[in-house]
């Protein structure tokens, strides 16, 4: 596998291509110098020791090599700038990913918190569950009109819910079936809630009636107690009167007991 197969970035490929051209030009220059080696140093200048056409070829090759090296430096500078930009983009993307990951963890935490709150609410021991309410069967047999009203209220709630959520939505047969099951479950939930409220309201009215009856009996009891207290006072006064009468009658009794 060559470097060209490993490197896929366009900027790095441009650097590699420019370096390859510079290498080829350098090899060509070295081959040209190998074909026309310079003689040992002498008193004459080096450019006078080789033919003019060879010197011109070497000069042209050196200029081409310098041009390729300049292209390599230029492409290398572009690649470095591209790497810096990629690093900045990677840092920004990492920051965004970290932010999204943190938000996701917060959502997971909130989900677990809400699930625990829902379980706590579902398992809460509500006081109304301990009320001695009339059983549902007995309530339905005693107040069928109230039960029918609860059923109608549940059906109306389902229709209102469908009107709010159904705006221009369209779905297939499976969606319709799922929606029907959901509506049925929602209707039963609303019906159970309305029925429970009706039973609690009935228990409240019964307790109010019993409380009113208890207050009436309490007043009657207080009246009887007051009447009994008054009779006790009258009897106490009668005892005092009898004692006084008996004390006053003693002389008369003694007079009748005397013998003449």
TrEMBL record:
> Is Cytoplasm given among the entry's keywords?
no
Annotated compartments: Nucleus
Alphabetically, which GO biological process terms does the record hold?
mRNA export from nucleus
One Pfam family, short name please?
A: FmiP_Thoc5
Which cellular components does GO assign to this protein? THO complex part of transcription export complex
- Where is the segment annotated Disordered? 161-180
Q: Which InterPro entries match?
A: THO_Thoc5
* Domain of life (superkingdom): Eukaryota
TM spans (from-to): none
Residue ranges with Acidic residues bias: 171-180
Q: Per UniProt, which keywords does this protein have?
A: Nucleus
* Molecular-function GO term, any one: mRNA binding
Name the principal localization, coarsely classed: nucleus
To which protein family does this belong? Answer: Belongs to the THOC5 family.
Q: What is this protein called?
A: THO complex subunit 5
Question: What species does this protein belong to?
Answer: Lasiodiplodia theobromae
């Amino acid at each position: 596998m060559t470097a060209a197969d490993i490197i896929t970035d366009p900027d790095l490929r441009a650097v590699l291509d420019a370096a390859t051209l510079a290498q080829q030009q350098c090899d060509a220059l070295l081959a040209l110098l190998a074909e026309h080696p310079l003689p040992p140093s002498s008193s004459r200048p080096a450019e006078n020791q080789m033919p003019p056409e060879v010197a011109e070829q070497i000069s042209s090759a050196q200029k081409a090599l310098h041009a390729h090296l300049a292209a390599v430096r230029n492409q290398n500078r572009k690649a470095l700038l591209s790497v810096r930009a990629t690093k900045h983009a990677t840092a920004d993307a990492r920051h965004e990913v970290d932010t999204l990951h943190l938000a996701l963890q917060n959502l997971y935490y909130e989900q677990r918190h809400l699930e625990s709150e829902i379980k706590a609410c579902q398992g809460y021991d509500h006081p109304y569950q301990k009320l001695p309410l009339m059983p549902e069967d007995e309530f339905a047999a005693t107040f069928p009109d109230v039960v029918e009203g609860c059923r109608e209220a549940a059906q109306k709630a389902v229709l209102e819910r469908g009107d709010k959520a159904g705006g221009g939505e369209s779905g297939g047969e499976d969606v319709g079936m799922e929606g029907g099951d959901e509506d049925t479950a929602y209707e039963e939930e609303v019906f159970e809630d309305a029925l429970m409220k009706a039973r609690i309201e009935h228990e409240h009215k019964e307790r109010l009636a019993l409380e009113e009856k208890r207050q009436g009996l309490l007043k009657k009891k207080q009246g009887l107690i007051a009447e009994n207290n008054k009779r006790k006072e009258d009897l106490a006064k009668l005892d005092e009167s009898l004692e006084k009468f008996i004390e006053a009658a003693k002389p008369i009794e003694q007079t009748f007991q005397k013998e003449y």
